[in-house]
Amino acid sequence: MQMQTVSFREALRVWATIGILSFGGPAGQIALMHRELVERRKWIDDERFLHALNYCMLLPGPEATQLATYIGFVMHKTRGGLAAGVLFVLPGFVAILALSILYAGFHDLPAVAAMFFGLKAAVLAIVIEAVLRIGRRALKSGLMILVASLAFVAIFFFNVAFPAVVLSAGVLGLIGSRVSPDAFPSPAAAKKTESSTTVVERMAAAGELAHTLPSGRRAARVVVTCSVLWVAPIVALAIAFGRESIFVKEGVFFSETSVVTFGGAYAVLAYIAQRAVETYGWLAPGEMLDGLGLAETTPGPLIMVVQFVGFLGAYRHPGNLPPMLAGVLGSIVTVWVTFVPCFLWIFLGAPYIESLRGNRSLHSAMSTVTAAVVGVILNLSIWFGMNVVFRTIREEHVGPLRLFVPVPSSVDLAALTLAGLAMVAMFRFKLAVPKTLAVSALIGAAWKWFG
User: Which of 236, 286, 351, 363 is the least buried, fewest Cβ under 10 Å from its Cβ?
Assistant: First the structure.
């Protein structure tokens, strides 16, 4: 029977269930929400769902988290958005924190090291699958293929910063849609297929969506409140531990990444890895793969990999705190500054979302950014692949070019074989990501113990 209204308690139960079951990255999470909220419960119609999704894809940050926050906001105002967003992230936060503690405390134990050896190989297959999946969706014209190629060359060979690539792609889409509109994708007209009205439609008919109307006063209040919540913890940490403490550095760094995370976790991971590994020395390249493996095996957004980075960075630079306590604090700080901006973007922009419907220029910008992200993810897959398969990689510079040269004698045949098996499992037999990771971890552990 179709519900006439949805109580806040019922919404909490549904959002908690979605958060616990949100495996499989953005594609799986969005599909789960569509099945639960559009098809099964009929809370929201397909047209509004897709329009909200397009808006979230234009924003920095994890689009699935922001989509949940948006729908929660429409259904139950600010408290609904907070509940949906927090419950979407909370299960993954708890799981990653527990696994980070295990990793930091017992990483040197042979059994743990063997398990993560198998995870690394599987993650390589997952990243390659992401390149192919997103590429099929985004590269539908020669121009988009060219954009992806240029993005890859800019990052891999010329070390151009990821934010610069994204910004350039967005500007190209905005300008190009006006100069040569036929060369850029047009927004598809949404079609309404529901035979009966949804909960949100009935709320609109009853005048219960006034909170979604634009308001300058409300927008100012949202900006001030979220900005204070975003910055205040960093200021407090600077006062308590000093401006040069690891907690302040992580708070500032991950605040920066939270505003450039266009394209999801896979895309921004290259930027995070470059800074966290090469600039700050918080962890090793192979450990980035371990972190992504943890994020892949737990519910919630893949960007939760930053929690692992924040934990290890603070664990290894604890200052006067015990390492584990420092790691937990670094983990909390990282997650806080990563996700507070998500609520800012949604609570500020949701009331104006109707003005984005069918806007050709914004759609072209989004499509061009998505194409560039394919090139970024290709760069990530090659970078990860070299670090999985080869134990030694030399970095050489020829003029403005940056080249990575693997040492052939350092090839890891076991890792190469495991990665190949993971690819066969995913591409040929369509094995789900969690199962692929679990099987790879077990095979890796067995290989290390009995090989």
Answer: 236
